[in-house]
UniProtKB/TrEMBL annotation:
Domain 3-deoxy-D-manno-octulosonic-acid transferase N-terminal: 38-213
Species, as recorded: Variovorax humicola
Entry keywords, A to Z: Cell membrane, Glycosyltransferase, Lipopolysaccharide biosynthesis, Membrane, Transferase
EC number: 2.4.99.12
Gene3D superfamilies: 3-Deoxy-D-manno-octulosonic-acid transferase, N-terminal domain (3.40.50.11720), Glycogen Phosphorylase B (3.40.50.2000)
Record bears the keyword Membrane: yes
Name the record gives this protein: 3-deoxy-D-manno-octulosonic acid transferase
Subcellular location: Cell membrane
A GO molecular-function annotation: Kdo transferase activity
Substrates-to-products reaction catalysed: lipid IVA (E. coli) + CMP-3-deoxy-beta-D-manno-octulosonate = alpha-Kdo-(2->6)-lipid IVA (E. coli) + CMP + H(+)
Function text: Involved in lipopolysaccharide (LPS) biosynthesis. Catalyzes the transfer of 3-deoxy-D-manno-octulosonate (Kdo) residue(s) from CMP-Kdo to lipid IV(A), the tetraacyldisaccharide-1,4'-bisphosphate precursor of lipid A.
Family to which the UniProt record says this protein belongs: Belongs to the glycosyltransferase group 1 family.
Pathway(s): Bacterial outer membrane biogenesis; LPS core biosynthesis
Amino acid sequence: MRSLSLRLYGIATRLMQPLLRRKLRRRAVAEPGYAVAVEERFGHYPTTPGGTDWCWIHAVSLGEARAAAILIEELRRQAPGIRLLLTNGTATGREESAKQLRPGDVQVWQPWDTPAAVARFLDRFSPRIGVLMETEVWPEMTAACAERRIPLVLANARLNAKSLASAERFGWLARPAYSSLTAVWAQTEADSHRLVSLGAKVTGIFGNMKFDAAPDTRQLAAAANLRAKLPKPVIVFASSRDGEEQQLLEVLKRFGATAPVPPPQAAIKSIAKRVHDVQWMIVPRHPQRFDEVAALVEANGFAVARRSAAGEDQGDAEIWLGDSLGEMALYYGLAHVALLGGSFEPLGGQNLIEAAACGCPVVMGTSTFNFAEAADLSLVAGASLRVNDMAQAVKAALLLVADPARHDAMVQAALAFSSSNRGAAQRTAEALLAIAEPTEPGLQD
């Protein structure tokens, strides 16, 4: 019999369904992907095939979908006939995961965590094993899989101190959910300790699969070709978040402006001697903010050139805007230095692993709790620098650009840091296939 807490949780999630529909309608205004196949979120699949022996992989958002892509590649290497069922929670995650689909695979939305929606999902697909990527643990789904004896694992698992504190506040739901998982494979020792404290069965510390991602060689080649032609070195603010772009723009004005900033309509040359010898680029983390950031740059008195308008005559734009998806290797390849988004506001930082794989030194702020161990290891390796605020970040980046010997040493340190931490995907795939114990050809070579 189900616990009272889980029954009450089920009632709450059912009552929240109208709010979820309203939220999806609002999100769809900026991101049309949220209007696609909405009924799948409630367990209704009129056109998708059912069947059994699926390897179900859930990657909620873009970062998790990229990690899942690395695991999928390794799974297909070890078990070429594997049948994949992919689920996501965000539009960007769904778009990224769609790139991994092959004939016979299926992609649907993550079911909302109500008893009815979860039951319809499991009835329809009957996965042989479920893989949750990184952080996504839902009480109803974990309970339902346990009741049906469907192995459910948490791969590339991470849990920072802030998330642990939040989970402990709802321990009556979190502890049964984590303890219901068949296995958990943590990224780090620290993640393992926190997960175990919630009752998770951590059976391996495999590292971070994102180290196994190889940068797009075509993008790196294109970046090298373009970089050789550029008159200035590039500093990129990678995966910037709300509030951080304004910090950068204010610092650039303070360091560079020698006169009041003219109105946006004028021909703007507002970045003066201290910073004018560098080409600045901003790549926002979330695509729905591209237009907002472009307007913000212009409102601060800078001319902006957008990646999406490449080929148009945009003059000598002081700020480049990377408003495209799936081109981070190009942006890192262009950059001499990257400022790490999410680390200059209390947001926990974005992933610096891709920058390291591209040989791009990183300057980060103080907030890196989302990727704490990777950030600390990169500092020890000499692949990154940590500063207290945006002003220090800009100064540090400019000093690094002006010091070729130090810059080259950090480039080599970044590449060595990246290569020395690989192997998590292979270990995870081997453990996953061992649990699945396939009896059908779908999950074996």
